[in-house]
Amino acid sequence: MHELSIAQSIIERVEAIRAEHEASGIASVQLQVGTLSGVDPYALELAFSVAVERTLYADTRWDIESVVARVKCRTCGRTTAPDGPFPICMNCDSTDIAIVTGRELMIDTIEVKQDEEKNHV
Question: Whole-angstrom Cα distance, residue 46 to residue 76?
Answer without folding.
Answer: 41
